Amino acid sequence: MFGSDVDNVENVVVPPLPSRPDFSLSQHTPGARITCELLNGKNFATWSRSVQLFLGGKGKSGRLLGTITKPNATDPKFVQWEIDNCTILGWLFNSMESRIYHVFMYHDMVPLLWSSLTKMYAHARNETRIFELYREIHQASLSLSVADYFAYLQSRWEELAQYEPLSKFNTEGGIAALRLDRQHTYQFLMGLKPEFEALCTQIVNTTPTSSIFEAFAMLDGVERRHRLLQLPLPPVTESTIPD
To answer: Both 52 and 111 in a single domain?
Structure first.
């Protein structure tokens, strides 16, 4: 009886331990494009999110921030580090517009490239793009099907959410109030006559963003002055907008 039990134990097949996931990028080509849209200088928020999601799915997010340090050339891990570094560089370069690629083409380490892109594009003012999104929402075609119309609006709402964290406010009420005032300002600007286009652009790019009442005062003052003089509205200059 005991012998039979021993025989049974000897015949048990032990399943192999699961292998560690392969996070190397050796099987990937650096010539691939990894984002739906190319980096154009205005879309860094959405573009960088796509890059982070892609690399995060491969366990390589640390490459962007430099948390995976470069090994010494004599270290056995150096070869794989270099392969991964070159592969990710290729992905990033192929996910940029040509003019941006030529600015950064000589960056040879992923963290340095990512840092340069962040410094140049992440902190740029997004007011112009936010205004464009509100205009696109305002001008949405009613000829679209319900599904296409919803998709059109949803994509722009999602992008607006990326640009409007408004973290300087500590309360939800403050955030909501500023967003509502900005929305009113943009709706007001979008409904003006074409001759105000240049002045509207100037207002959108004012720091800090003009309130609805400030925007009205600027435009009304310019219109009144030129109505009195019976002159056409001039091109915008630094002196056009009243202090």
So the answer is: yes
